[in-house]
Every structure is written in C-alpha cells, then in structure tokens.
Amino acid sequence: MPETATSVDPRRWKALIFIALAQLMVVLDATIVNIALPSAQADLGISDANRQWVITAYALAFGGLLLFGGRVADLFGRKRTFIIGLVGFAAASALGGAAANQGMLLGARALQGVFGALLAPAALSLLAVTFTEAKERAKAFGIFGAIAGGGGAVGLILGGVLTEYMDWRWTFFVNIPFAVVAATGAVLVIREPADSRNPSRLDVPGVILATLGLVSLVYGFTRAESDGWLAGPTLGLFAAAAVLLLAFVLVESKVKAPLLPLRVVSERNRAGVYASLGLAIIGMFGLFLFLTYYLQIVKGYTPVATGLAFLPMIAGMITGSTQIGARLMTRVRPRLLMAPGFVVAALGMLVLTQIDLDTSYPALILPAFLLLGLGMGTAFMPAMSLSTHGVQPRDAGVASAMVNTSQQVGGAIGTALLNTIAASATSAYAASHAAGAPSRDLLKLQSMVHGYSTAIWWAVGILLLAAAIAFTLVNTGHQGGGSPVASSGDGETADAAAGDEVPVPVMAH
Question: What spans are recorded as compositionally biased (Low complexity) (predicted)?
C-alpha cells in the first residue's frame, strides 16, 4: 500500500472541525428556511402557489447535481471542490438574504443547491480519505453522523430565533460566517492524500442523464403533492425519470470512465446503506414538517418554543451517534446497529401516532423524541461510515455523493408523499365528521391532527422497511480492523473482501 494511504495526518482532528462545520451549514440550511418562509413570503409578495419553490428550487439543484459534484471532487480534488463549494454557498446565501423580489430569492436558492452539491460529497469523501484507522474512523464518523442527524433540528431552533427576534433574511446571512471559518480552516489545515484522485475524463452523457433523471424524479413528487398522483404531468415526470435513469445505468455499464461506477452501488452493503438511509429520511423529513405545524398551529407554540421542543431529539441523536454507534462500531456488525436503530426510531414514531389536541409534551412527545433521536443517531453513524467503506479513494467522492443523493431525494420524496397522505386523510376526516362537529375551528384542528397521525403511521412502516433492508443486505463484519480505504486494484477486488464473517480489510456519504 502506498505511503500516502497509510500515513497519519497530524492535523486530521482539526480538519474534522472544519469539515463538520461545513456539513452543519448544509444540513442547517435544509430546515432553517422552512421556519422563515412565511415571513419571506409576506415580505416579498410570493404567492401561495409559488412559495413551495423556495424549498423546491434548492432540492432540485442539490439532488440533481450531487453525483456530478461527487465526480468533480474525485477529478479535481476534494479540498479544492470543498473550498469552491463553501465560497459559492456563502455568495448564494448573501444573494438570498439581500433578495428584493421573488425571482432573486428563487435564483439564490437554486445557486445554494448547486454549490451544496459540490460541498456535501467533497466533505464526506474528505472524511473518508482522512480517517483510515478503524477506531479513529468510528469516532470521526460518529461526530459527523451526529451533526448530519441533529443539524436539521438545530436549523428549526435557529430559524425560529432569527425569524422571531431579528429578520428572515438572517436565516441566509447566518451561513456566511460558517462558510468563511470553514473555508479558512480548510486552506490552513485540510490535507488531501496525493494518490486519491480519479484523473479519468468526465462522463458528460452520464452527467446529463443522471441530472435530468433525478430532477424529473424530485419534481415529479413535488407535482404529485399539488396536482395529484395520477395527474398527467405527474405521471409524465415519473415516466421520464424512469427512462432517463435506466438510460443512465445502461450508459454507465458501457463507458470507460463512468460518472457512477456501478461497482459503487452493486456491492450489497453499500446498496443496503443507500436504500435504508433514503427510506429513513423519507420518514424523518415528513415528521419535522408535521410536528412543526402541529406544535405551532395546534398547540400554539411560538417559532422559538417549537425549535426548543426538538432539543431532546438532537440530544438523543448525538448520544446515539457518539456514545452508542461510535463505541460499538468497531466491535459490532453494522446491521446490528442500523436495524435496531431504525426499529427504535419506528417505536418513537409509533408513540407519535397517538397525538391529539390535548397531548402532553412531557408525557408523550418528549419520550417519542428521545426514542427517535437515539434510534436515528445509532443507525446513522455506521451507515455514514459504511457508505464509503470498501471503495477506492478515487471513487470516494461519488460514493459520498450517493449517500447524500439518497438523503436528498428521500427528503423530497418524503415531504411530498407524506404531505399528500396527510392532506387526503385530513379532507376525508373533515368530510365524514362535518355533521356532528361542535365548531368549525375545532373540526379543522381535529382533521389536521388526524391527517398528521395517519401520515406518521406510514412513517412507522417506512422505518421498519428501512430496518429490514439494513438487516438483510448489510452483511459485512464490524469495522474494527484494517484500513477502510482501498488503495489500489479495481473496485470489485476490494469489494470481494466484504465477506459475511470478517471486517472489510482494505477499503473506503
């Protein structure tokens, strides 16, 4: 193995600080704008029909370009891509904060998505090639997993504080100091192994097919939420996504230097991680949205109080990730952490199906949040690590992009799917109970809670499916020995080491 693959970077833990800070900024941005959206809509005169584009413009650019961003990181260098992503994200955030009209805000959100698609896979792949010793890798990914899991809820808190006490524009401006500190630290501290790049020519047809396919898929679910699942545009977008993504797979199997080497996703352990993590995010994204509305509209919480109500979930995620997942990852098989973690999270969801108009936060919501946090934190940590465990350094960027893609696409699908389910259940409840309702306002709240509860039942099932997939597909041993990053040879050789009885010996969200 080359010296660069085994040498230990003395500044690696300092590098982790800046990599984690960048990841926190990206994850925060996924939820912080949700809290500020009503204020921004009123200030800029955005219509109800167009307000969703503040979220969708970001999701389309981010989800559609993630694979491209991962390949760019592999080709041109992860550190360079990481810094460009940070600078671009900060500039786009400044543009969003200064937005004078709807078009300017939507353009800024799309730009944030573009640079986020460069930044996110570069951050995770830097982590993968920087921490190659098993115990250190477990600790580093534990910290990273806690940030990835808890950052969304932190965004709800920060968004509430900034919106309530300052101005919605600060939910954009707050990204700038994050980016400046992370970029400065990256220049001074981060060192990328010299032999970890993939110098192969960029696969332009793959970029076009993957980007259009993922954009069609994400946009299809967005249209399903507004137009219905059987509407012509919705079905057309889903059909286009299927054709484009199938063509992408065929192209990738033929070209010499594919955008997504099929060896990255064909290995059962990584396939299990991508599928189970995407499903888990489907359940979690919908939950954040429902509970935000439930706490504010039904329970009457302020934006700040709503954010603070999510703190126990954050604490549970950090505890599950750093104290359970990271400590056990080097001794316990990943599936024995991931599957039980998703089951525990499903139990938390199951508790939340019992919400009502007068539900007590300490008696029901608090224990549910703790279960959700502990379960997701425990499952996320080995999943994030295993997503790049077993690929060569030259493929680390695209493997990282795949786990980000599964989360981003999962989030978009989850929001649209569960929102549609909740809206249908709400309408059906209101129609069937209209005759005996004591008041219209009470019926509206009861219908809303019924809709949320119905959607959360679906989330329970989705999390249990994620657990089943993780337990069935992820069969590698614990990650307690050898180097997790492959240094040479083809991907199939490295993947062959991922047997059922032993940890992966020489391998790399």
Answer: 486-501
